[in-house]
Amino acid sequence: MSSPQQRLSSITNQVSGGATARQQLLSKNPDDVVITYAARTPLTKSRKGGLKDTSIDDLLISLLTTIREKSNLDPNLVEDVCVGNVLAPGSAYVARSAVLAAGYPVTAAASIANRFCSSGLLSVQNIANQIIAGSIDIGIAVGAESMSTTPDGGAPEMSDKILSHPIASQNQQPMGQTSENVAAQFNIPREAHDQFAAKSFQKAEHAQKSGWTADEIIPVQTKVKDPKTGEFKDVVVNRDDGIRYGTTPESLGKVRSAFPQWKPSATTGGNASQITDGAAGLLLMKRSRAQALGQPIVAKFCGATVAGLEPRIMGIGPSLAIPKILSKFNLSKEEIDIFEINEAFASMGVYCVNKLGLDLAKVNPRGGAIALGHPLGCTGARQVVTALSELRRQDKRVAVTSMCVGTGMGMAGIFVSEH
Questions:
Q1: Is the CB of residue 192 less than 8 Å from the CB of residue 350?
Q2: Strand partners, 303
Q3: What is the DSSP letter of 82?
Q4: What angle do CA 141, 142, 147 make, to 5 degrees?
Q5: Helix (H, G, I), strand (E, B), or coil: what is residue 134?
Q6: Is 4's pLDDT higher than 70?
Q7: Residue 153 banded pLDDT, cuts 50, 70, 90
Q8: Cα(418)–Cα(33) distance, rounded to whole angstroms?
Q9: Do residues 275 and 379 make contact, with C-beta atoms less than 8 angstroms apart?
C-alpha cells in the first residue's frame, strides 16, 4: 500500500504530465526524424487554373527538381521517394519515372501511397518509418494530384458480398452524400456551413494579401492552353488561385444546394472543398544525419496515426484521429499551437471543431481546403508545409495535421517546428 507522500507524488506527476510530455516532444535527440526542406506548389483550380494543363508527371518533375536544387543535398543520397496520389492511372510508373527525370540517380527508388485524402501524410509516415527502421537514411515524401488531367474518382463495381454488407456497402455512397449524412445526423444547419466556409475564405484572403504563403510556395514553370486559340503559352504559376476575395456568409447563403437529392441538402459549391491541382514535398532524415551533412533542420516529425469509423459519416474522422494521436503523446489540445484540419466539407469542419472544443483561432489560420482547394493526394503533405510555415510566422512550436478519409477513416500527425 502506497504512502500519502507516494500518492501525492503520483498525483503531481499526473497533473504535470502534460507539461512534461510537451517538453519531451520539444527535446532534440540524434535519432529524431527531421524535415530539412518543405515546400509546395501553388494550388490552382481544376480545369480552369494555372496548372490545368500540367500532367501529374510534369507536376512531380517540377517539384522534385526544386527539392533537388533548393535543398543543396547530393541527390545520390536520396534512397526512396514516396508519392501520395489517389487518381493517376499507372501512378507507380509515373512516380519512378518522374524521380529519374527530375535528376535523381537510378539508385533512388519510388513508390505510391494511397489512402485517399490522407495519402500525402501517409507518404510522410512511410518515409519516416523506413528511416526509423533503418531501411533507408534519407527519403522524400510527396503528395501530388492533377485533378484536371486524371479521371474523376468514384467507387468501382464491387462484389455482392460487399454490396449486401450493411457497413461495407456504405462505400458506394458518393462523398457529397456523406457530407449530408453528417449534417443530418449531427443537426448542422446550412447557416453553420456557410459561416465556417466564409471564415476559411476570409483567412485565406488575409494570408495571401499579407504575403504569409511566400515561404511555402515554389513557382511552377509550365504551359497553359488558351481555350480560344488552342495554343499553348509559357507561364509561371506562383500563387493559389481558388481564393474568392470578399466572401461572406451572406454571399455563400445564395449558392444553391449541390445535392438536392440528399437531405438536408446543406452542402454547396461554396461550402465544400474545391477540386484542385497541386503538389507538396518534404525531405526527411535523422537529426544526426542532417547535422553531419550540414542540412538546415526545419522541423521534427513526431508521429502519425489512423482511425476508422462508419463510411457513411467519414467526414468526422479527425474527431477520432486527433484525440488518438494526442493520447499517444500524452498531450492536451491546449498544448497544440496550430491545427490544420482538411475542410473536405464545411459539415465535417463544423462538427470536428465543435466536438473537439478547439480554439478557432488555432484552426487553419491561413484558411483550408474550402478556400485553397483539395488536390486529393497532395493535401496531407500540403497541410504539413503550411503548418510549418505558419508556426514560423507565429514563432510557435507544435502543429497537428488531420483529415477525414474516404471509406471511413481519419488520420492525424504531429510536427514540431525548429525554425
A1: yes
A2: 414
A3: E
A4: 160
A5: coil
A6: no
A7: confident
A8: 12
A9: no
Instruction: Please give the mean pLDDT across all residues of the chain.
Output: 95
Q: Which residues contact 63 (CB under 8 A, 6 or more apart)?
A: 39, 41, 142, 144, 218, 220, 279, 280, 281
Cell numbers at 315, concatenated:
467526414
Report the C-alpha gap between 53 and 44 in whole angstroms: 11
Instruction: Return the amino acid letter for 85.
Output: N
Catalytic residue (one of 82, 302, 352, 374): 374
pLDDT higher than 50, residue 259: yes
Q: Which three cell numbers stand for residue 160?
A: 455482392
List 302, 352, 378, 404, catalytic entry: 404
Instruction: Kindly tell me the sign of the dihedral angle through the C-alpha atoms of 82, 276, 156, 263.
Output: positive
Residue 378: active-site member: no
Active-site pick, 117, 302, 352, 378:
117
Give the residue carrying C-alpha cell 457513411: 312
* Rounded Cα distance, 324 and 319, in Å: 9
d(CA 26, CA 22): 6
Query: To the nearest 5 percent, what fractions of the chain are helix, strand and coil?
Result: 40, 20, 35
Based on DSSP, count helices (H) and strands (E) in the chain, helices before strands: 14, 12
What's the pLDDT at 152? Answer: 83
160's enclosing H/E stretch is helix 160-163
**Are 122 and 143 in contact, with CB atoms under 8 Å apart?**
no
Return the amino acid letter for 229: T
- To the question of pTM greater than 0.70 for the whole model, the response is yes
The verdict on whether 374 is a catalytic residue reads: yes
Measure CA 218 to chain center.
17
Strands 276-286, 44-45: pairing is: antiparallel
Instruction: Assess whether 404 carries a catalytic annotation.
Output: yes
Nearest-angstrom CA–CA distance, 18 and 124: 26
How far apart are the C-alpha atoms of 115 and 376, rounded to whole Å?
10
Q: Answer yes or no: is pLDDT of 39 > 90.
A: yes
With beta carbons less than 8 A apart as the criterion, state whether 395 and 302 touch. no
Instruction: Identify the residue whose cell numbers are 499517444.
Output: 328
**Confidence (pLDDT) at 14:** 40
Angle at 383 between CA 378 and CA 389, to 5 degrees: 125
Q: Report the candidate in 150, 144, 149, 151 with the shortest Cα–Cα distance to residue 61.
A: 144
Q: Is the pLDDT of residue 42 over 70?
A: yes
Residue 75 pLDDT greater than 60, yes or no: yes
pLDDT, tens digit, for every residue of 83-112? 999 999 999 999 999 999 999 999 999 999
Cell numbers linked to 314 = 467519414
